[in-house]
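User: tokens in, sequence out, please.
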């Protein structure tokens, strides 16, 4: 079984000066194989046009990089997936990290639950490593899918700057693929108990007609999402122009899909 991991990167650095990309690659290297199969992993890194990899970045032998046609996350993702023909595809944004069980749990759910696509809840942490919250929106860093899903849904829409993930999930939901959203062992999976975690209910109601919640058994989410000042979400909160663009994209999504896709 072969898997392509796509990592879009702006080659930015954390507060200590280390590349976010180096840390995300470390978390890929630490992944455990699922119990009954060996997964052959290749990594495709998408970077901005004209970007060169820094001298202090040590790429593993199974990694390649591609330059995007334009400076955007969608373009970087699309460049990295241009030659995708593996059994499975996973995405990890360079400022996020996977816990060691992430791939084993995700691939295991795809096989044992007869799913086509999985997403997952994340644990939000700040740059000092302090836990901030659990984040139930299905960001791309938790996506793992079968080959036919990517080829059917298609690449990311480069006309979206901030909510390209919502738009892609909208197309996914409209095609009727079987989807699971993985949550930690104590998370509610029955809608009666989602009062304190309403975004989990959004996954079920706005994620398409075949969306389910599944516990992966670990006490914490399997993806660590970094909160930092250079992120797109930080820009939306601080920059009036970014906020206006975000609002326009949400309005466009609502017109297109009748909801904000999750």
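Assistant: Sequence out:
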């Amino acid at each position: 079984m072969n898997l392509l991991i796509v990592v879009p990167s702006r080659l930015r650095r954390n507060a200590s000066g280390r590349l976010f990309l180096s840390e995300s690659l470390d978390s890929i290297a630490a992944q455990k194989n699922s119990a009954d199969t060996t997964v052959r992993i290749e990594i495709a890194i998408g970077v901005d046009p004209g970007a060169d990899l820094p001298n202090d970045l040590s790429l593993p032998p199974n990694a390649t990089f591609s330059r995007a046609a334009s400076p955007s996350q969608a373009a970087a993702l699309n460049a990295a997936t241009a030659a995708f023909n593996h059994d499975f595809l996973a995405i990890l944004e360079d400022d996020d990290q996977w816990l060691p069980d992430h791939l084993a749990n995700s691939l295991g759910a795809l096989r044992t639950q007869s799913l086509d696509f999985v997403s997952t809840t994340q644990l939000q942490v700040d740059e000092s490593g302090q836990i901030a919250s659990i984040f139930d929106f299905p960001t791309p860093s938790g996506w793992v899918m079968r080959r036919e899903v990517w080829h059917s849904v298609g690449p990311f829409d480069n006309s979206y700057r901030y909510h390209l993930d919502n738009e892609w999930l909208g197309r996914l939901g409209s095609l009727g693929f079987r989807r699971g959203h993985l949550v930690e062992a104590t998370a509610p999976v029955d809608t009666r108990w989602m009062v304190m975690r309403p975004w989990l209910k959004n996954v079920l109601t706005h994620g398409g007609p075949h969306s389910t919640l599944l516990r992966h058994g670990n006490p914490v989410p399997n993806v660590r999402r970094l909160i930092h000042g250079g992120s797109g979400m930080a820009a939306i909160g601080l920059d009036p122009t970014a906020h206006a663009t975000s609002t326009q994209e949400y309005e466009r999504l609502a017109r297109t899909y009748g909801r904000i896709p999750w």
